[in-house]
Amino acid sequence: MPDAAVHVGSGKVRELYALDDDRLLLVASDRISTFDVVLPTEIPDKGRVLCGLSAFWFARTGATCPNHLLEIRPDGRSMECRRLEMLPIECVVRGYLAGSGWKDYTQTGVVCGHELPAGLHESDRLPEPIFTPATKAEAGHDENIDLETAAGLVASERLEQVQATALALYEFAAAHALERGIVIADTKFEFGLDADGTVLLADEAFTPDSSRFWPADEYAAGGPQPSFDKQFVRDYCESLGWDKTPPGPDLPDEVVAGTRARYVEAFERLTGIGFDRYMDDPGVVVR
Ligand code: PZK
């Protein structure tokens, strides 16, 4: 009998288990967070959508960068992956000016050392995508850092390599998504090294939890954009006047159903695969 999986870590909405010395199991739950708080109500199949999307992108970007995916379990939410030595930086690519990028720009005109043109507005598309690394905070928010600081954490040759890889991955996925009506405004990657020192893409990739997905048909720069996946949840929470400190509110059935439908819609648009087919046979996304 194989050894039991040993729990080795928890994220806000994911769990990590060790299978053996070389393999981990990354399990995507149906938990949802908003305004940095995990809510008491789950969104059915959210974890399956995110796991399936990650696997879809891993299968289609393997030529640009090898990745940690070994297989998806039949439950559709658990990914067996290679155990790597993770690089100690978050590799963020921004194609649009939002979140902390917009905040840094308003204060200094600079984002992670990139001097951007004057006069940009919130959510503007950038002249070209920029690589904006961040530290991995144990608690609280990741902190944006410039390339020199990042090079002190991973060595400058390694940084050049992951920067070029991250930009290439973003360009590929953002173009694919835009053809299907979704703007990927920005995205976060994590990379790790295998025993040979090869860089692999790890964690999740191009999911709505690791990226900002915006509906392309509603895109209008000059202010914040609606979230493709979480907007019903945000609107409901705002309508309550909740102060955004834990505990978060329970979600009513119609908000749960509407949000589940948006996750499924993102999956089906991006993959071109019916979500029911994925539920039947999760391997369908990697073939
Ligand atoms: C790894 N995390 C993030 C924390 C989660 C996820 N392939 C890998 N090898 C070694 N370590 C990791 C990975 C990956 N991916 C990922 N932390 C370590 C994390 C908590 C829960 F689901």
Q: Would you summarize the structure shown here?
A:
The protein has 287 residues and is of the alpha+beta class.
Write the layout of secondary structure elements.
Elements: E1 6-10, E2 14-18, E3 23-28, E4 33-34, E5 37-38, H1 46-61, E6 69-72, E7 78-82, E8 85-86, E9 89-96, H2 99-108, E10 110-111, E11 114-115, E12 125-131, E13 134-135, H3 147-154, H4 156-179, E14 182-193, E15 199-202, E16 211-215, H5 231-240, H6 253-271, H7 275-280
Antiparallel strand pairs: 1-2, 2-3, 3-7, 4-5, 6-7, 8-14, 9-12, 9-13, 9-14, 10-11, 14-15, 14-16
Helix pairs in contact: 1-6, 3-4, 5-6
User: Which kinds of small molecule does this entry bind, naming each only once?
Assistant: ligand PZK
Order of helices and strands: EEEEEHEEEEHEEEEHHEEEHHH
Count of alpha and pi helical runs: 7
> What's the shape?
globular
Strand-residue fraction?
Answer: 25-35%
Calculate Rg over CA atoms: 19 Å
Which regions are unreliable across 5 or more consecutive residues at pLDDT < 50? none
Please report the distance between the alpha carbons of the first and last residues.
Answer: 29 Å
User: What profile does the largest beta sheet have?
Assistant: 7 strands, antiparallel
What is the helix fraction of residues, given as a range?
Answer: 25-40%
The overall average pLDDT, rounded, is 97
- What's the number of extended β-strand segments? 16
Helix/strand structural class: alpha+beta
